[in-house]
Design goal:
It is a single chain. By secondary structure, the protein is α/β, with parallel strands linked by helices. The chain folds into 3 domains: 162 residues, 3-Layer(aba) Sandwich (Rossmann fold); 133 residues, Rossmann fold (3-Layer(aba) Sandwich); 104 residues, Arc Repressor Mutant, subunit A (Orthogonal Bundle). It has 17 helices and 17 strands. Strands 2-1-9-10 form a 4-stranded parallel beta sheet, sandwiched between helices. It has a 4-stranded parallel beta sheet with strand order 5-4-6-7, sandwiched between helices. A 4-stranded antiparallel beta sheet has the order 11-12-13-14, with helices on one face. Helix 5 runs parallel beside helix 7, helix 11 runs parallel beside helix 13 and helix 15 packs across helix 17. The longest helix has 15 residues. The protein is elongated and about 85 Å long.
Amino acid sequence: MHGQQDRQTRQDSHGDAGPRGATSLYGDAGPGPLAGFTVGVTAARRADELGALLRRRGAAVLHAPALRIVPLPDDAELLIATKQLIDDAPDVVVATTAIGFRGWIEAADGWGVGDALLTRLRGVRLLARGPKVRGAIRAAGLTEEWSPASESMAEVLDRLLEDGVSGRRIAIQLHGEPLPGFVEALRAGGAEVVGVPVYRWMPPEDIGPVDRLLDATVARALDAVTFTSAPAAASLLDRAQRRGMLGELLDALRHDVLPACVGPVTALPLQAHDVPTSQPERFRLGPLVQLLTAELPGRARQLPVAGRRLEIRGHAVVVDGELRAVPPAGMALLRALARRPGWVVARADLLRALPGGGRDEHAVETAMARLRSSLGAPKLIQTVVKRGYRLALDPSADSKYADYA
């Protein structure tokens, strides 16, 4: 199963089509399930993989790593973890990166406990994520019990869960940012998990992308934000607080922008601020993307208009199954009309709905003309002389949508 997921991921890494290319990507099947939606990605690790999975399904992706990962030279936290493992042997040790494993052994040598650590590692089950890590293990005079050829942490997790982890003590050499869902799945299976922190989480050197993601979230220009670690979620909240926009961010995440977390531990910083989160049943990237694929289209507004099926997504519209990109001003007008389908909306109200407002009602007329052109079906929106505009809601649907008036 997971081999198939890995093959799919490799295929996805070659597909970078955004919403505009989704229709051709899916051919006669119509636009991808996430076409027309924009998703924020806060991960530092495996962001390319997650972005590829999202784009493959048609989403536009805004990547803003909320953390950066730096080595821990002579760090007290690593020393404490190392001594604890020497004194209290784990059942399993998982090595995840070659440079991290070498750094751990070198640091232990510097502290004078290198031989004791190697002796301890010889007496436990040692799993390596892939060939590079396996080489580092053997260079240290150790032998791994098993290593997947694919370098997939999903396969390592499957191996551990199949063998049974309940009551076992498992040490994992961390990359820096926690492995998405890996630790959570082991703890859910009853394991005691000990992290070996060979790296430290720090704020990104370039804070610009994070600020852009925050601005986009507050402006509701994003439909969802994904989180693959609790430190990333906490870092984003901290940055929002420093900018004096924490309240605006929380309001957006509570009501309009879907916060999707890879697992319950990742969600804790958000839940501490009373932000409801969505999480997949399996704490991995693939199920996280599947969750978005199921939830975001369900949030889209669907209306029968002028004999056509209109579906309003994040930054695009699907008209009878065909994806139509719409400019931001046009989307603002369409959403204002869709709030009262079939009813006339005055030009003055539409003017206030435009991004940044507008100087006069001519701005509404210009944006409306572009909206109609983008939809490719001018009759979807009717002009009511001297009053405004309205969506041409099908008569048979009037009673169903009367509550919106």
